[in-house]
Amino acid sequence: MTRWVAGVVVGVVVAGAAVGCDVPPAPDAAPGPSGIRPPAPTVAASPPAPKAPACPAGGVRLAEGAGDAAMGLRVADIQLVNCGTEPYVLEGYPEVRLLDGKRAPVEVAVQHGGDGIAAAPTGTEGDPQRVELRPGQAAGFGMVWRNLVTDSTVPAAEGWVLEVTPRAGAPRLELELRHSVDLGNTGKLGISPWKAAAR
Questions:
Q1: What is the reported pLDDT for 151?
Q2: Quick one: which of 70, 65, 58 has its CA closest to 167?
Q3: Within the chain, which residues score under 70 in pLDDT?
Q4: Given this model, what pLDDT does residue 89 score?
Q5: Do the Cβ atoms of 199 and 86 come closer than 8 Å?
Q6: How far apart are CA 144 and CA 124, in angstroms?
Q7: Where are the domains of the chain?
Q8: Calpha distance 77→123 (Å, rounded)
Q9: pTM for the full model?
Q10: Residue 139 CB: number of other CB atoms within 10 A?
Q11: DSSP single-letter state for residue 105
């Protein structure tokens, strides 16, 4: 009897020890580097710099210069740049035509100088001179007009596009204006002869 009890006790102790030794398995190891790198963040490419407009067939281009609009008297400068590879000679006055926002001709009398438009000097005075432009050089002419409505029954005229023939036989150039030639209904536009731009 004693021997059987002892066997039972030993069996229980061994079983208990076996139960106590039942340790859960170790967790799986964390995955190591796979050798594949994540893609680098993409950087947006800067937009290409705007290209200068192509030089027109005649070798010159127009640009709108400075202007002033004091007390209804308007003055504006138009520049002509030699963008070609050969010298360009100007003499006298340009031939000028105004178009409205729909590109229809504006009825206006273009005159040399500012007589009858302004009493004081406006920069449109002076005698015509020969101006030679080397490549990259510029010349200009001035314009003067009054924004004045003298007859309410006549619609006010406004030019948004300037057509210029720089010299006899040259191709006509077109310039869209940032500031309109708002003539009211005076119907007069004074222009200066070509003058070399300050260098």
A1: 86
A2: 58
A3: 1-52, 199
A4: 98
A5: no
A6: 7
A7: 60-196
A8: 9
A9: 0.71
A10: 22
A11: B
CB-CB neighbours of 170 under 10 Å: 17
Asked whether 65 and 77 are in contact (CB, 8 A), the reply is: yes
Q: DSSP state, 146?
A: E
pLDDT single digits (tens) 132-181: 999 999 999 999 999 998 888 888 999 999 999 999 999 999 999 999 99
CATH architecture of 60-196: Sandwich (2.60)
Cα dihedral 149/150/152/154 (nearest 10) = -90
Eight-state DSSP code of residue 184: E
Question: What does the buried/exposed string (b/e) look like for 150-160 if buried means 16 or more CB atoms within 10 Å of the residue's CB?
Answer: eeeeeeebebb
- β-pairing verdict for 109-112 and 157-165: unpaired
**Residues ≥6 apart with Cβ < 8 Å to 73:** 117, 118, 122, 144, 146
Q: Rounded distance, CA 147 to CA 188, Å?
A: 10
The reported pLDDT for the residue numbered 9 is: 40
Residue 61's contacts (CB-CB under 8 Å, 6 or more residues apart) are 53, 55, 80, 81, 83, 173
Tokens of 157: 């005229």
Distance CA 77, CA 59 (A): 20
